[in-house]
């Protein structure tokens, strides 16, 4: 008798043969055989396609039987069926934990149905994405309805102005679905991007205690996320991503219509227009939601033809290309060249450019828009046909990859068994045939994308105008004597050493074993590089620096292509490496930074803090919070890329010292904000939100305080971060998740996770070195303090040097209310009356201890001056300022407004504590010393200079120290 798996390809047949008896220990069940057309061969074929299907039957046979009894697998999965089936599960719900269980069991059943029909090709792409999207809508609406009623019982019903009539009315939440959910094109294993809104401000009525509408809907949103996203014993329903909301993770979880409209009108970015193209009301008050969508339409669709959209889409695609290079995602069918994202970009480019005029383009479904582009003659029929066929193929392949294990992935498999599964699902005899078809589709998509969106100068190279002499030199077509003569004539100051370095590179083992294409790229690149080096003042020295980078990219010659196709970037590379060995080392360690050299305008004009926040938001949107490793890698690249811009700007003179420190500090603050969000979300997914005394869940209640250079807005290129963690949660309460922990434990683990993310060495290095020794009681104290304990410590137990440190402290990340409460403690502590004589003596004693341990030894002071630690250096100024702050804040509380030395000096002058002239001279000396430290850092030099350096500044600082600290 023929076995049911005999018709399968050999590796799959062997696998099914080995597991069949364990899945069906009592033989093939009747409930399967009673299903029309459901033979053993059919089931074996389904199991061969998907581990998820097989494991669901093996582990939950009763649920699969119940599902098949309710609706035949041969029938489409319709929204009506899903709504009716949810009612079946909802009937078992009497509490929130039961709601979570019902949703997850509903998901298991529905995923089984959708994945079975898709992988068996009983459903086409249109049915699969519609069913998956309808399932998401049903889950969101079902959970929201139950939770809203429960919230109203606890806190009363929210009331406010009706968005249409303006009359007083009951308020309900509006849930916007973004991305593929909004377009009803959801993947079979996808996360969902949501935005929460409510019509208007107001308060709840008829509850135990009235709360404002925003608080009500934020709490409701938190519970809705947990209902869908939290992993329990039954799994999860959908991973929920809220980062597309205004201000990302730092924004309120729910906003009123007016707040949303104001944000998009005043601050909306191009990428947010792109995201809003697919926005749809997926749950909640549909009528009110339509009012909201109508109000946002002018932001998305401009009345005029908006060709600026091309540039923003190019920027987004460039960012994705960098990500593909960084992660090696060429096998990603969504993000790689010729992938799904490029088709989406082509279609949405036309929507953003012409959607305001051609209303037919104001639709969400990609295939519908493609047909409209053909009808409007905006794209040729052949292009539309090829894009449509490629999109259907790629999306079906995406579902094949995801349906095998119910796993969110777009990466092509590299093992034989998975390749055989995919080939079977896609209808090919073997993996090679499937791969060839995929390659043809991707090539056509990449061509159309390049023709429509890519930049005009992508194919330009500098090879045509390059002097042949450099090529002859690199390819050894001239002897050593003539090569040295050529290099000397073109300015190489150490031609013999440079020639020897080039010979060593040619003899490098990696070069000797390079494939033909890689060797060809190297032979094109090196002559161009040598010619560019001849244009700088120190070509031999610069060559030594740049060769570190060349050796780093020998196995990744795509970077050489990038420089060959962008001669301007090669010019910037050579100039920066000539100016700074520190930059040369950064580029060698992280070649991906070469992307930053493509645009000289942005390279020498780093973005302001708001733009930094926006840039990081865009980069991190595609990375799930639970993928901590990738989050950490991307944060490190973000930091390095933007610090490179700051360094380049300082070298070129477009940023003065004060601005350099501002930008370096902003980068750290933006990174810290995101790290707090990632760490908090990670813990919430495990343990729920910390509870407050009134029973509500808090969104954060945690803050990071920056001390030292971070607090003083004076970060340098290699500065560590002096941090203190505080929170205002109740340590005696616990979290509200399925695995609750005490709030105190939650916040301690939050602090530990933040330090881990910042401190850990990854392939891209360390994000920041963190110093926590300034927390209460130092290394022996708790990692995270309550605000109450922090304030008590400052009042009763802190040493004078800790109050000195507090003068330079400020809140840098986390909950605004917690930061505000910290600032009140700082102000109160600094304003305490002190005995100036004893205070001055303590500060002087501490300074002498530091100078003795960190300054230049006495016998070498005539030859070396340590800019920071020696007498007449930076620390003398800092200690003077800190002493004056502590001595006079009680009489001049306005002094606590600033945490940085420069403005504290100015404030001391304005208050009359020191003469304004002295304040200005101290400020000038301070800037001169710090500028030198910055410049030396870019040359990989320390803070020690010639013993005769800065004679005037040092003499003045000496005199001020004597006047302020010794003569009074």
UniProtKB/TrEMBL annotation:
Keywords assigned by UniProt, alphabetized:
ATP-binding, Ligase, Magnesium, Multifunctional enzyme, Nucleotide-binding, Nucleotidyltransferase, Transferase
Q: Does the keyword Protein transport apply?
A: no
User: Which InterPro entries does this entry report, sorted A to Z?
Assistant: GlnE, GlnE_rpt_dom, NT_sf, PII_UdlTrfase/GS_AdlTrfase
Q: What class of enzyme is it?
A: transferase
Q: Which cofactor does it need?
A: Mg(2+)
Q: Where is this region: Adenylyl transferase?
A: 467-968
The domain of life for this entry's organism is Bacteria
Give the Enzyme Commission number: 2.7.7.89, 2.7.7.42
Provide one Gene Ontology cellular component.
Answer: cytosol
Record flagged with keyword Membrane: no
Gene Ontology molecular-function annotations:
[glutamate-ammonia-ligase] adenylyltransferase activity; [glutamine synthetase]-adenylyl-L-tyrosine phosphorylase activity; ATP binding; ligase activity; magnesium ion binding
- For the region Adenylyl removase, give the residue spans: 1-457
Q: Which CDD domains does the UniProt entry name for this protein?
A: NT_GlnE_GlnD_like (cd05401)
Segments forming domain Glutamate-ammonia ligase adenylyltransferase repeated: 42-290, 571-823
According to UniProt, the reaction catalysed is: [glutamine synthetase]-L-tyrosine + ATP = [glutamine synthetase]-O(4)-(5'-adenylyl)-L-tyrosine + diphosphate; [glutamine synthetase]-O(4)-(5'-adenylyl)-L-tyrosine + phosphate = [glutamine synthetase]-L-tyrosine + ADP
Pfam families found in the cross-reference section: GlnD_UR_UTase, GlnE
Sequence ranges assigned to domain PII-uridylyltransferase/Glutamine-synthetase adenylyltransferase in this UniProt record = 314-452, 850-935
Task: Give GO terms for biological process.
Answer: regulation of glutamine family amino acid metabolic process
**What family is reported?**
Belongs to the GlnE family.
Function summary: Involved in the regulation of glutamine synthetase GlnA, a key enzyme in the process to assimilate ammonia. When cellular nitrogen levels are high, the C-terminal adenylyl transferase (AT) inactivates GlnA by covalent transfer of an adenylyl group from ATP to specific tyrosine residue of GlnA, thus reducing its activity. Conversely, when nitrogen levels are low, the N-terminal adenylyl removase (AR) activates GlnA by removing the adenylyl group by phosphorolysis, increasing its activity.
Sorted alphabetically, which NCBIfam families does this protein's record hold? PRK11072.1
The protein here is known as: Bifunctional glutamine synthetase adenylyltransferase/adenylyl-removing enzyme
State the species of origin. Marinobacter nitratireducens
What gene is it encoded by?
A: glnE
């Amino acid at each position: 008798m023929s076995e049911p798996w005999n018709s399968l390809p050999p590796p799959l047949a062997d696998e099914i043969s080995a597991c069949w008896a364990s899945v069906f220990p009592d033989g093939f069940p009747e409930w399967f055989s009673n299903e029309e057309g459901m033979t053993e061969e059919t089931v074996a074929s389904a199991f061969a396609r998907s581990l998820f299907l097989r494991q669901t039957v093996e582990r939950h046979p009763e649920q699969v039987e119940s599902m098949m009894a309710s609706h035949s697998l041969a029938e489409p999965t319709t929204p009506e069926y899903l709504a009716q089936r949810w009612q079946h599960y909802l009937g078992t719900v009497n509490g929130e934990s039961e709601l979570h269980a019902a949703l997850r069991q509903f998901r298991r059943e529905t995923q089984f149905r959708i994945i079975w029909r898709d992988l068996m090709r009983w459903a086409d792409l249109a049915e699969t994405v519609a069913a998956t999207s309808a399932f998401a809508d049903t889950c969101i609406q079902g959970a929201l309805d139950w939770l809203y009623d429960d919230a109203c019982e606890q806190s009363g019903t929210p009331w406010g102005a009706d968005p249409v009539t303006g009359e007083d009315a009951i308020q309900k939440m509006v849930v916007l679905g973004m991305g593929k959910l909004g377009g009803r094109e959801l993947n079979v294993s996808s996360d969902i991007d949501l935005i929460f809104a409510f019509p208007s401000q107001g308060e709840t009525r008829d509850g135990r205690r009235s709360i404002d509408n925003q608080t009500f809907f934020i709490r409701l949103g938190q519970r809705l996320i947990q209902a869908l996203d939290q992993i329990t014993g039954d799994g999860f329903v959908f991973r929920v991503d809220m980062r597309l909301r205004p201000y990302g993770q730092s924004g309120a979880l729910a906003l009123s219509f007016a707040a949303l409209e104001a944000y998009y009108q005043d601050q909306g970015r191009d990428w947010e227009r792109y995201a809003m193209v697919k926005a749809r009301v997926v749950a909640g008050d549909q009528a009110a939601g339509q009012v909201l969508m109508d109000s946002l339409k002018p932001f998305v669709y401009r009345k005029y033809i908006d060709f600026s959209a091309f540039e923003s889409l190019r920027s987004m695609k460039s960012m994705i290309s960098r990500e593909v290079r960084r992660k090696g995602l060429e096998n990603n069918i969504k993000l790689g060249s010729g992938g799904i994202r490029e088709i989406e970009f082509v279609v949405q480019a036309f929507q953003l450019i012409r959607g305001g005029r051609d209303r037919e383009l104001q639709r969400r479904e990609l295939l519908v828009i493609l047909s409209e582009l053909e009808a409007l003659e905006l794209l040729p029929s052949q292009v539309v046909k090829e894009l449509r066929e490629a999109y259907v193929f790629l999306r079906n392949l995406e579902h094949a990859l995801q349906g095998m294990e119910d796993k969110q992935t777009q990466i092509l498999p590299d093992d034989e068994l998975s390749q055989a599964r995919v080939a079977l699902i896609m209808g090919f005899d073997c993996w090679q045939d499937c791969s060839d078809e995929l390659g043809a589709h991707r090539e056509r998509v990449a061509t159309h994308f390049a023709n429509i969106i890519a930049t005009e100068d992508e194919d330009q190279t500098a090879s045509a105008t390059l002097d042949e002499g450099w090529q002859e030199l690199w390819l050894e077509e001239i002897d050593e004597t003539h090569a040295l003569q050529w290099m000397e004539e073109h300015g190489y100051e150490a031609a013999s050493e440079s020639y020897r370095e080039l010979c060593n590179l040619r003899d490098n083992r990696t070069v000797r074993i390079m494939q033909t294409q890689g060797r060809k790229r190297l032979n094109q690149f090196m002559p161009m590089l040598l010619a560019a080096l001849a244009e700088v003042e120190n070509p031999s020295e610069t060559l030594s620096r740049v060769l570190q980078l060349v050796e780093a990219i020998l196995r990744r010659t795509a970077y050489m292509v990038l420089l060959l196709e962008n001669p301007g970037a090669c010019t910037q590379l050579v100039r920066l490496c000539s100016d700074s060995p520190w930059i040369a080392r950064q580029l060698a360690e992280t070649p991906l930074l070469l992307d930053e050299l493509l645009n000289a305008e942005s390279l020498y004009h780093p973005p302001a803090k708001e733009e930094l926040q926006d840039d990081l938001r865009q980069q991190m949107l595609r990375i799930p919070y639970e993928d901590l490793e990738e989050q950490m890698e991307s944060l490190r690249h973000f930091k390095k890329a933007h610090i490179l811009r700051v360094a380049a700007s300082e070298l070129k003179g477009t940023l003065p010292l004060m601005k350099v420190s501002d930008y370096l500090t902003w980068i750290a603050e933006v990174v810290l904000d995101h790290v707090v969000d990632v760490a908090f979300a990670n813990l919430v997914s495990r343990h729920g939100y910390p509870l407050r005394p009134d029973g509500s869940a808090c969104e954060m209640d945690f803050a990071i305080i920056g001390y030292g250079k971070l607090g003083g807005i004076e970060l340098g290129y290699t500065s560590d971060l002096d941090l203190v963690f505080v929170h205002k949660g109740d340590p005696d309460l616990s979290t509200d998740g399925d695995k609750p922990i005490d709030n105190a434990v939650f916040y301690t683990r939050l602090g530990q996770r933040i330090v881990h993310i910042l401190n850990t060495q990854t392939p891209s290095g360390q994000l920041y070195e963190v110093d926590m020794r300034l927390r209460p009681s130092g290394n022996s104290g708790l990692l995270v303090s309550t605000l109450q304990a922090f304030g008590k410590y400052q009042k009763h137990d802190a040493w004078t040097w800790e109050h000195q440190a507090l003068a330079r402290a400020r809140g840098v990340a986390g909950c605004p209310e917690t930061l505000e409460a910290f600032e009140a403690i700082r102000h109160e502590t600094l304003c305490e009356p002190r005995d100036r004589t004893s205070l001055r003596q303590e500060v002087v004693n501490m300074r002498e201890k530091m100078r003795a341990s960190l300054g230049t030894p006495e016998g070498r002071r005539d030859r070396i001056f340590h800019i920071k630690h020696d007498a007449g250096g930076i620390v003398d100024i800092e200690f003077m300022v800190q002493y004056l702050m502590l001595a006079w804040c009680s009489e001049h509380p306005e002094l606590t407004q600033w945490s940085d030395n420069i403005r504290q000096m100015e404030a001391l002058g304005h208050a009359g504590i020191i003469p304004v002239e002295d304040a200005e001279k101290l400020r000038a000396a301070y800037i001169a010393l710090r500028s030198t430290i910055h410049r030396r850092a870019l040359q990989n030099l320390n803070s020690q200079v010639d013993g005769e350096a800065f004679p005037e500044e040092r003499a003045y600082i000496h005199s001020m120290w004597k006047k302020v600290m010794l003569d009074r």
